[in-house]
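Because discrete structure vocabularies remain unfamiliar, it helps to consider an illustrative case, giving the amino acid sequence and backbone structure tokens:
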Amino acid sequence: MRRSRQSKLLEIIRDKNIDTQERLAAELNAAGFKVTQATVSRDIKELGLIKVPGPGGKSVYARSPKGSSAADERFRKILRDTVTDIQSAENILVIHTLSGCANAAAEAIDNIAPRSVVGTLAGDNTIFAAVDCKENVPAVLELFREAII
């Protein structure tokens, strides 16, 4: 049952822009899978799903394009442990880290960031991350802020 449910979940996020666990649960229920939000949350974690910028700047669920979920979690831990502040200026994110940690945090960003982050440049305690367009900045900011909480 779990495999078929998770297979359907992946099909739903591939075909539709799903932005909340509640909406994903509703879609699964409509497809005949009786699930709760807690079940959906566990499936999201097991499948290593991430949120990426979607239409209109909303973040939507997607499969992680890079690495395994275990590797992604290690990168998120690096961000949680090192990032102290994130700001934006047009399509550039300015990310401050603990002293000497910017290179490790930039590597983490390069590995888990959505495709809309086209590159990073790290100094000692500051990272510049270029986003492909201003419209994607709010969703990328939300994604990074969720990663460091």
About this structure: The chain has a mean pLDDT of 89. Residues 32 and 57 are 30 Å apart (CA to CA). The longest helix spans residues 2-15.
